[in-house]
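Holo prediction. Input below; ligand is adenosine-5'-triphosphate.
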Amino acid sequence: MRDLSLLVQMGFGALLALSVYLPLRCGQLSLATPGFYAIGGYVAALLSTRWPALSGGGASYPLTSLALELLLAALVAGAVALVLGRPVLQLRGIYLAIATIALVEILRVLNLNMAWSGGAVGIFGIPQPFDGPAGYALATGVLLALTCWLCSRLEAMRLGRAMSAIREDELAARCMGIPTADVKLIAFVLSAVIAALTGVLAAHFLNTWNARQGSFDASITTLAFVVFGGSRIWLGPVLGGLVITALPELLRPVGDLRLILFGLVILVGPILFPQGVITPEGLARIRAAVRRA
Amino acid sequence: MPAPLLELEAVTCRFGGLLALDQVSLQVEQGEIFGLIGPNGAGKTTLFNLISGVGRPTAGLIRWSGEAIGGLPPDRINRLGIARTFQNLRLFARLSALENVLIGLYQRGHSPLLGALIGGRSFRRHQVELRQQALQLLELVDLSAVAQQPAGSLPYGSQRRLEIARALATGPRLLLLDEPAAGMNPIEKEELSALILGLRARSELTVLVIEHHVPLMMRLCDRLAVLNFGRRLALGTPELVRHDPAVIEAYLGVSS
Ligand SMILES: Nc1ncnc2c1ncn2[C@@H]1O[C@H](COP(=O)(O)OP(=O)(O)OP(=O)(O)O)[C@@H](O)[C@H]1O
Ligand SMILES: [Mg+2]
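Structure of the complex:
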């Protein structure tokens, strides 16, 4: 049981890492992911605890209601990203990072002080659509697989090529006729939607939701996933999210040393692999080696 | 009489106290190879920036087939049919030569979203076509052999040619070349000049080219304009420009 729960959390980690990866794929360092994750969680928490009709009559929370939450969370987060994206994405580099951190903080403080979000205590007793971690593992696995598939398809599409072009040289990309503002906005909206969907699953899984779920710490952790795994191909953030979420648990046997070891991995990773553990060139080399063997 | 393909009317560009362009007027006709020469800092690249939408004119008008386009964003300008290369090379350095050209083909790369997502047959066929077009463009600039290499790893002259292929991929009617021969050896320069002439002949391309190598420009261009300190000095056939006293003094040097 413990192991399955860890698996679910690793899946959340991978999903959030992909959410950070998508804007980064076109050179945009956005740290807004935890904000949209929080939005998703609140949509789920509010709908499932305050709207009795959704709970149905049975023992467990209906999957159709969960699906409705996912849909609404995606819509809300997507709409917020669409509105905020235009002005925010005009900022570059570290300025964009700071602006998105500010967004996450504003949202956190709002959630902390609003009556409808349960204030500091948050929302309790979020109903369970699955009777154990296995169900969550399956749902998270499906969402992760879909997201990976979407990201892998991007590599083959002109949208993915446009994103690479913007990351390499935004001005040159514009001069090649690419509507860079639109492409960046699409990446930002997709990122928000992925984070919000993850938030919905997480709210049910954790059974409770509060303002701490979307914090500055989370911005940094999710960024670490991508820095560790690599931001040039979708496999990188997936690996980063899985490994770095699992690491504190896996290191539990070593006791107090684990925090130091954890810090070391996050520190040494980028030193040994400045582009992240997984790069397109590295994958090509592995593929060639496998073919030879 | 039809409007000229490109027309600049008293175009001025100011950077703070610096007058980079001072009321420059010129017209480029369809099918011309038009040269722009002038000493360092004369404002040549600035002029390209204004035409391509990278900068906006402080005053004056830029017309494209009669329509005012000054101040439009660069992606819009490119979609209108104006493509450029960069003096300081702005390739997508970590991407392969082929991918650089594929990105240039962005506008032609549109396919229905659903087909693209499921990777359907017509999507795949379209991708194969795009790759073939990209390879043809690489062939044209003699780079097919290095199609898979990262653009940033190519020798200087090859990078210059790759910039041309990438710009051509966007399907322009006007090509702006900013010092395309810089860093090339004499043989490469001759090949480049043949390439430009060939492009014009084959696809009715109009070319506006900046280059310091004056003998090359005299041979290549139908007409030339000379810029000096942001002002247009002379304008006309190479023969005319060569003998213009103001040009001789300002640019071609005391030697002549
Ligand atoms: N963005 C800018 N901000 C401030 N000054 C600029 C800017 N761009 C160009 N300048 C200045 O404008 C003047 C003209 O520069 P420009 O690059 O157009 O010259 P050029 O004719 O292309 O020269 P070169 O032959 O050296 O390439 C120079 O003095 C330059 O320093
Ligand atoms: Mg210049």
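Chain A touches chain B at residues 150, 153, 156-158, 161-162, 164-165, 168-169, 171-180 (CB under 8 Å). That is the main takeaway for now.
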